[in-house]
Amino acid sequence: MSDVVLEVRDLVKHYPVRRGLILRRTVGAVRAVDGVSLALRRGSTLGVVGESGSGKSTLARVLVGIEEPTSGQVLVDGTDVSTMSRADRRALRRDVQMVFQDPYTSLDPRMSVSEIVGEPFAIHRTIPRGGRDRAVRELLELVGLDPDHANRYPHQFSGGQRQRVGIARALALRPRILVCDEPVSALDVSVQGQVVNLLADLQAELGLSSVFIAHDLAVVRNIADSVAVMYLGRVVEDGPADSVYDGARHPYSQALLSAVPVADPTVRLSDGRGILLEGDPPSPVSPPSGCPFHTRCWLAPTLPEASVPVPEGEEVQARRVPPSCSGEVPLLVGAGGHHAACHFARPLAEVRR
Amino acid sequence: MSDIRNTAPHGEDFEPVPGAQSIDVQGGVGAGHLPPEPLPTEDKSYSQTQLVWRRFLRHRAAMISCAVIVLIVLVAYSSIGVGPIPGWWDKTYLATYDKIGTGSPTLTHPFGQDAIGKDYFAMTMRGTQHSLFIALGIGVLSTILGTLVGALAGYFRGWVDSVLMRMTDVFIVIPLLVIAAVLGKMASSWGIWGLTLILGAVTWTGLARLVRGEVLSLREREFVMAAQAVGTSASRIIVKHILPNAVGVIIVNATLAISSAILLETALSFLGYGVQSPDTSLGLLISQNQNAFATRPWLFWWPGLLILTIALCVNFIGDGLRDAFDPRQTRKD
Fold it and tell me: May I ask the CATH class of domain A4-236?
């Protein structure tokens, strides 16, 4: 059996933008995910990091099956999901489950906790050994909640506890793959640590493979074995966690990492302030030509290739980048499993001397 | 697991042990052979429905209105009976009696008598029975239809939504009174059942739009996505997740639909397109006696006051329900 339990190849998910009243013409598309290839190994955690609009939530929804991809493949244990029959795909729902971001809206407020956690059993018509109630109690204990509270309602729990209920629900059918879409973003920092530790413990205990999506690098560092950084629907860097954190090679990852608070300030950049990116991310409806990051890249204007003489007739831009940055889409290249999608990828120590 | 432990010194001595049979409290005062104090009962966990119910019961206007409506219903149905079951009122609405004077209210005929000597109390009660039945029937039917259309349109969106909403627009655009009048005339031969069905079939549009809006917003909530991730079928999601969360909007508008149905039936019967003789309804009574307003006011006022009271009470109940469902209530329950 292959080591890779979940894989996406060239995944594309576009949402069409339609205009018109009666006959709606498609005038454009929101390119939420624009060619992503990732692999998740059995028993490991893949961290996916990116800012708002990078397409990570869309990726999560496609992985779990809530959305269908526009093109590309999602492979579970080597089998393409789109080639499966409806029955097989339904059975697949038991293997790939999701933990949602907002503990306040991801639980139906009109159902008690035991109904919420027990619903997957009713949907798939499985009766766990020992009965449904006992299975629900075991799940609640597994996530660190008091099983006597099973008949309470979500509004009677705190945010961290609700998130635990969400995790219990995701684990009800004993999935093999867990996709966590920013599970701790809506929680206080102290509670974040508890929930992240819980997820790590559960993964070890139950042998799960998980995809952990977040926008906070510090959180992901604790839990991820390998990391992928996303920007505007593409993966700009991926590799083993230590390799990416200690030696990021893409300017976007370097900027993100420079903003992470660390205990020893001398470890950060010499001026201690970190790399600031200007402006907002471009709209996913009209991404920049060439490298999607070149409009905000801090490295590109400093490169010698940026001051290539401008051909006659073209106006001189205020902010100049190398022609390859605005012209060609960079591919993920690198060695030792650590890839970066940048024409001028290099570790930070080389740049800042 | 990462639990927060009780780290007070000798904290373990003070942990409550639920259900323990031992009566020896360490260092406890007055330890005798008495059964242990039962632990204070846990906070009762109220479901959303119970919370709403409690808030509703505290709304004074709604409670008074409920009492009044119950009273009216009881009196209307028990006084002259319904169908084969007799009531406690000794007169019927069909028989004519000796007219006392001009027919003004007396002890024998507390509501007076109409022009040919019929007992007006019995007639009014019969009219109330019919009006209540029609109003309730229209309310229920239009709620069911409106919820169905709105939920399907809101959940499936796309062409289902377009088709259903265009159909709804057609029903909205055609004047309600006109269509009800035309259809009501046709259906009046079927009695009040026909009238109820027809009117219910044309008044569902408001609720359909509201439910559609509510379902559209609920559909984007994460617990719906979570249900989809587990593989829940669309019908189950609608019935078990979306509709229970939309029930506030639905119930409030159902009561308002009942209230406006009363007025609609009154208007139609007044115009002559609703309930036909020899059946009565409150609207028909008003219509038949509109000229008596100056000379024999009791013929006009009794049914009018009843209509007013019923519509007002139903409205207050709707208000009370709306306040009860409002999640922005800040008072602690």
Answer: alpha beta
